[in-house]
Design brief:
Number of domains: 1
Strand content: 5-15%
CATH topology: Rossmann fold
Structural class: alpha/beta
CATH superfamily: P-loop containing nucleotide triphosphate hydrolases
Distance between the termini: 46 Å
Radius of gyration: 19 Å
Order of helices and strands: HEHEHHEHHEHHHEH
Number of strands: 5
Helix content: 40-55%
Strand order of the largest sheet: 2-3-1-4-5
CATH class: Alpha Beta
């Protein structure tokens, strides 16, 4: 991807995209995804790892709810990465990540991921730049391992939200009773570090791009969900999957 400036990339849909037409198209894509995910699960030759990264209130939960819950729950797993436990901290930073990567036939969604260990840790000076770059190299090697040795397709999405939209969504968590459960006072403190996080993300997008990122304009949920669903559909179609035939009696259950 090379050096990028997120300030130069719009957080909104292109002007030629019609909201209602795009929402209709997204529903058509979700119907296709339901069948393809069933095929992925039945064939069990490939795995899909979807990584959702972005600032607080960029809409990661909404993507999971609106793009993935229409699929068969047997083949879907969602993992959110919070503050590491004492056990997790006693291992290398990728230990807790490797334990929950998808098996063949599965789609796993990471709500935040291994990238937190080169983002929040760097912004708060818990690791220095040298340590961050060593971790980025380890992440590249780790993702290559999954891709080459477990047929895992990795889709990495940065949800690109504007600071104005973020503040509006954080305020909604105070005022809207249906969203108050999401409220975390610390989110407002982290939002004050916007420039520091932006720089850390730009560095991450540049140096952890062996498997490329997709920067998703995230101010409008309908466009964000369309982009992610479209990317997932294209990935699954490229796998050229087929339903397996009848098992022989000695092949087990």
């Amino acid at each position: 991807m090379g050096k990028i400036r997120l300030d130069d990339i719009s957080t909104r849909a292109p002007k030629d995209f019609d909201k209602e037409a795009t929402k209709t198209k997204t529903q058509e894509i979700l119907q296709e995804l339901d069948e393809l995910q069933n095929l992925l699960f039945a064939e069990s030759k490939h795995a899909i790892l979807v990584i959702l990264q972005g600032p607080d209130a960029s809409g990661k939960d909404g993507v999971i709810r609106n793009v993935f819950t229409s699929m068969n729950p047997q083949g879907i797993n969602v993992k959110s990465f919070k503050t590491p436990t004492a056990l997790e901290l006693s291992h290398d930073f990728l230990w807790r990540i490797h334990a929950v990567v998808p098996a063949k036939g599965m789609i796993h969604i990471f709500n935040r991921s291994q990238y937190e260990d080169v983002l929040i840790t760097r912004v708060h000076k818990w690791i220095d730049d040298e340590g961050a770059y060593k971790r980025m190299k380890a992440i590249n090697d780790f993702e290559r391992l999954l891709q080459e040795h477990n047929s895992t397709r990795i889709l990495k999405f940065y949800l690109h939200v504007s600071p104005e939209e973020q503040q509006e969504r954080l305020q909604e968590r105070i005022q809207d009773r249906t969203k108050q459960w999401k409220y975390n006072e610390n989110d407002f403190k982290e939002a004050k570090l916007w420039k520091e996080y932006r720089k850390a993300y730009e560095d991450c997008l540049e140096h952890c791009n062996d498997i490329p990122w997709t920067v998703v304009p995230a101010d409008q949920n309908w466009y964000k969900e369309y982009m992610i669903a479209s990317e997932l559909l294209a990935t699954l179609k490229k796998l050229d999957m087929k339903y397996p035939g009848l098992k022989k009696s000695n092949e087990g259950f």
